[in-house]
Design brief:
Strand order of the largest sheet: 2-1-3-4-5
Shape: globular
Largest sheet: 5 strands, mixed
Strand content: 15-25%
Number of strands: 11
Radius of gyration: 19 Å
Helix content: 25-40%
Number of domains: 2
Order of helices and strands: HEHEEHHEEHHHEEEEEE
Structural class: alpha+beta
Number of helices: 7
């Protein structure tokens, strides 16, 4: 594959074309399959845990089931001393909530997709590829939706590697007695198979997962989680706190405004990385607050 950079305008035109419905009745989404496993994932529930308002639990089991069924990732075993290759944040809610939840990570992930030369092939690789619009903020309309988002972070440096979104106004999934197949099994693992909202959210997460799975070039280029991160710059995505230790309850060192530039020291602990600011102040920040 060449490393050409595809103009964003041309990419969005291609996506818009792919988004045109082939018929009035949509077929259930297919799941992207991978020839090679890209590593382990550890799911982290995001702040926008919209599944609760529909009486549903965490999508952890659902995302893990999609990872296994696709062959793209392996769920991280908590008993394993080796860290996960990727951290995956899951969010859900209406379209506006999910867009807000991943919008700050979209720019970096989209640029990485373009720089990798993968952008031109992503649309054709995603079953029902119009869903890729979500990665570039292309969802619209005022009709109520059930939406889901997935954000992949490299624990080696705290940087967002890729994002994916799925939005469903009316589910195409049907879990009758003898129908549903792998999708029914995946939904059932999270307790989503028995309700309309659960089926809609299942479909939204499938669409979001498909967007991630086809970004192989970007994901494979992320630093190994076991490697020490070289000193590099990161920026604060949302107002947050620099803390004295790698825990949410650690003492406050200083407040950080969105846009503040920081330098990584190469130390990390779970979801926290150690950084210094332009004045030499050192502390820990959550990767969830960084671009």
């Amino acid at each position: 594959m060449s490393n050409r950079v595809f103009p964003i305008t041309a990419l969005l035109i291609a996506i818009s074309i792919s988004a045109a419905p082939a018929s009035a009745k949509r077929k259930p989404p297919e799941l992207v399959k991978c020839d090679t496993n890209m590593g382990t994932i550890a799911l982290v529930d995001g702040d926008a845990a919209g599944w609760a308002k529909w009486g549903l639990g965490s999508p952890r089991a659902l995302v893990n089931a999609l990872a296994v069924e696709s062959g793209c990732f392996t769920p991280h075993n908590t008993a394993d001393t080796a860290p996960a290759r990727f951290l995956v944040t899951a969010i859900a809610g209406d379209q506006e909530e999910v867009d807000r939840g991943i919008s700050l990570a979209k720019t970096g992930a989209s640029e990485a997709l373009l720089r990798s030369g993968a952008a031109g092939s992503v649309v054709t690789k995603v079953p029902f590829g119009g869903a890729l619009m979500g990665a570039f903020g292309g969802f619209g309309g005022k009709k109520k939706t059930v939406a889901a988002g997935l954000r992949v972070v490299s624990p080696a440096n705290g940087m967002t590697v890729a994002t994916g979104s799925g939005s469903v106004r009316k589910t195409s999934l049907s879990f009758g007695r003898n129908s549903g197949g792998w999708a029914k099994s995946a939904a059932g693992a999270a307790g989503y198979a028995g309700s309309k909202d659960g089926r809609m959210l299942t479909e939204a997460f499938i669409l979001a997962f498909n967007q991630l799975a086809v970004q192989k070039e970007v994901l494979s280029g992320a630093p190994a989680s076991g490697a020490a991160a070289a000193a590099s710059g990161v920026s604060v995505a949302v107002d947050t706190i620099m803390r004295a230790g790698p825990e949410a309850g650690s003492a406050k060192v200083r407040s950080l405004r969105a846009g503040t530039e920081l330098t990584q020291t190469g130390q990390r602990d779970g979801l926290f990385i150690e950084v210094t600011d332009n004045y030499g102040t050192k502390g820990w920040v959550s990767v969830e607050a960084l671009n």
